[in-house]
């Protein structure tokens, strides 16, 4: 079995693929994991039996012709690496990698299972990539998505190919009660987690926090993650007068201790695939406030039970939700107890069983 993704340098899709690779290697399967990036940027551990191949083929292009040439070369190198791995099945994660993997596979004998990890309705690619996706996706053997609403979209992209829905799972981290070792401020804080990108909506969160900062002068905002919007978010916090209370904590290898000591978790994403960060935070006992959407949050947060759902991209409603939970510690405590139920609701065993079933049934069907 060969797994393909752009990199392992952080992000929910990368983490899930690393977990799956290690699971299959531990169960005795021969597993190769290929990335376009090299291995120096890896942030997720792998089982020692996973064969790791980094192509060092990522990098910017300065022109359309340069981009076309670079992707042609990536396809050739990717095909060579997949061929060398002698797979019975190739599994590709994320939209552009799915397209590249299908192009690289061409008329090769191996089947390709693609995994769409975000919402194609919101996470749009450049026009050429969108056209290539329309052309390439029907050539997959099957597709895996994380919610039924996204399944309906992907079915239109893959034609008659089967589409399976497998939500992400909770992989609980050990509890750490040593608050002395926490990075940054020890003041009470709201917490958010994700790449500093437009998709994650941290600009909306900082605006909401600024609106209630005076009402809760002892509470800070901590955002874990790194990304291209850091400078813009720092500038926004300064312009709103809350720079001294908004901490952009950067990449944290083990975020669980930071999550465990937060007051509540805020999911401000404009869209998601199926938010791993939300699962991890609720497993740590944090009630959540998040934008309602059909990309996972509604399936995780149970409104008024373990968190609050508010209308998408509605900063006023997000502000009110945060203010309500900060103002009522007893409500936060009640929701905290129920939040931990995500560990049973999205248990790892069911996740692995469903993936194992899809892989086994696909290999059997294609062999027959």
Walk me through this protein's architecture.
The protein is of the alpha/beta class and 368 residues long. The chain has 2 domains: 2-169 and 347-367, Glycogen Phosphorylase B (Rossmann fold, 3-Layer(aba) Sandwich), CATH 3.40.50; 179-345, Rossmann fold (3-Layer(aba) Sandwich). 42% of the residues lie in helices and 15% in strands. The protein has 14 helices and 13 strands. The strands form 2 sheets. A 7-stranded parallel β-sheet has the order 3-2-1-4-5-6-7, with helices on both faces. Strands 10-9-8-11-12-13 form a 6-stranded parallel β-sheet, with helices on both faces. α10 links the parallel β12 and β13 (307-310). α6 (202-212) packs parallel to α7. The longest helix is centred in the N-terminal third of the chain and has 22 residues, at 64-85. It is globular. The relative contact order is 0.11. The model has no long low-confidence stretch (mean pLDDT 91).
Briefly, what is this?
42% of the residues lie in helices and 15% in strands.
Query: Any idea what the shape is?
Result: globular
Number of domains: 2
The share of residues in extended strands comes to 5-15%
- What is the CATH class of the largest domain? Alpha Beta
Largest sheet: 7 strands, parallel
Structural class computed from helices and strand pairing:
alpha/beta
* Number of β-strand runs: 13
Helix content: 40-55%
Strand line-up across the major sheet: 3-2-1-4-5-6-7
* C-alpha-based Rg, rounded: 21 Å
CATH homologous superfamily caption of the largest domain: Glycogen Phosphorylase B
Number of helical segments? 14
Measured between the Cα atoms of the first and last residue, the distance is: 18 Å
Give start-end ranges of low-pLDDT stretches: none
- Helix and strand element order: EHEEHEHEHEHEEHEHEHEHEHEHHHH
Using the 3D structure, state the CATH architecture of the largest domain. 3-Layer(aba) Sandwich
In round numbers, the mean pLDDT is: 91
- Provide the CATH topology of the largest domain: Rossmann fold
């Amino acid at each position: 079995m060969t797994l393909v993704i752009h990199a392992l340098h952080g992000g929910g899709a990368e983490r899930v693929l690393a977990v799956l690779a290690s699971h299959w290697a531990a169960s005795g399967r021969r597993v190769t994991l290929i990335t376009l990036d090299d291995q120096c940027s890896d942030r997720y551990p792998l089982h020692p039996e996973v064969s790791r191949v980094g192509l060092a083929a990522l990098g910017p292009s300065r022109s359309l012709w340069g981009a076309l040439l670079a992707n042609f070369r990536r396809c050739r190198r990717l095909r060579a690496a997949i061929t060398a791995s002698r797979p019975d099945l190739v599994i590709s994660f994320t939209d552009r990698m799915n397209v590249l993997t299908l192009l690289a596979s061409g008329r090769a004998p191996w089947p390709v299972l693609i995994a769409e990890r975000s919402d194609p309705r919101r996470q749009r690619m450049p026009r050429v990539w969108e056209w290539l996706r329309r052309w390439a996706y029907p050539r997959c053997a099957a597709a895996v998505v994380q919610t039924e609403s996204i399944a309906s979209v992907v079915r239109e992209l893959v034609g008659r190919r089967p589409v399976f829905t497998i939500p992400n799972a909770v992989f609980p981290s050990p509890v750490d009660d040593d608050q002395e070792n926490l990075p940054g401020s020890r003041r009470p804080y709201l917490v958010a987690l994700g790449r500093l990108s437009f998709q994650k909506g941290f600009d909306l969160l900082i605006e909401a926090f600024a609106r209630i900062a005076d009402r809760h002068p002892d509470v800070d905002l901590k955002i874990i993650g790194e990304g291209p919007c850091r400078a813009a978010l720092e500038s926004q916090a300064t312009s709103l007068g809350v720079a001294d209370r908004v901490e952009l904590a950067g990449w944290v290898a083990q975020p669980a201790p930071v999550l465990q000591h937060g007051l509540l978790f805020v999911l401000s994403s404009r869209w998601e695939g199926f938010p791993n960060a939300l699962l991890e935070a609720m497993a740590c006992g944090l009630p959540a406030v998040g934008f309602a959407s059909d990309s996972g949050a509604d399936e995780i947060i149970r409104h008024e039970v373990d968190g609050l759902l508010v209308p998408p991209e509605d900063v006023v409603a997000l502000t009110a939700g945060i203010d309500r939970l900060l103002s009522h510690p007893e409500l936060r405590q009640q929701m905290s107890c129920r939040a931990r139920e995500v560990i049973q609701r999205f248990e790892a065993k069911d996740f692995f069983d469903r993936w194992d079933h899809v892989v086994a049934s696909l290999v059997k069907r294609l062999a027959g």
